[in-house]
Amino acid sequence: MFEIKPIQSMEAIPLRQMVISPDSPLEESKYIGDENEDTIHIGAFAKDQLVGAASFYKEQHDKLSGKSMYRLKGLAIDPGHRNELRGQTLILFGENLLAQNKIEVLWCTTKVSNLPYYQHLGFHETEHTYNDGEKGLQVLMVKHI
């Protein structure tokens, strides 16, 4: 059994580093906006241990239309807990919080290999792609909530 609940950014950062950028210093896993009042950080816990984290930032994207939108960034699931629906549950929990606050659009960028995962969660691929040197080809994904 696991629990989903709000967390502080400082709880998410070590997990982000371990999963997303293990070869980088911890400082690089801190994102601009982590400490903003309107940023939402959510954690998945298994037996009181943080095994997943997702962060939602109030951020517009110039390629998308809509007045109220948030960005999903820093989705990190401990490799020992993958394929247990942790990521999906974190995103759905976050969407529910955003919908309660009348947020209309959730967006993220992801590498091409992750497209099926986000499509399964109801995100749609846009025509906007770009090459991020270290991460490779990135695709802008969007979901109306």
TrEMBL record:
Pfam families linked to this entry: Acetyltransf_1 (PF00583)
Alphabetic keyword roster: Acyltransferase, Transferase
Entry GO MF terms: acyltransferase activity
Protein's UniProt keywords contain ATP-binding: no
EC assignment: 2.3.1.-
Start and end residues of each N-acetyltransferase domain: 1-145
Matches recorded under InterPro entries: Acyl_CoA_acyltransferase, GNAT_dom
Class in the EC hierarchy, top level: transferase
Keyword Transferase included in the entry's annotation: yes
Full protein name: GNAT family N-acetyltransferase
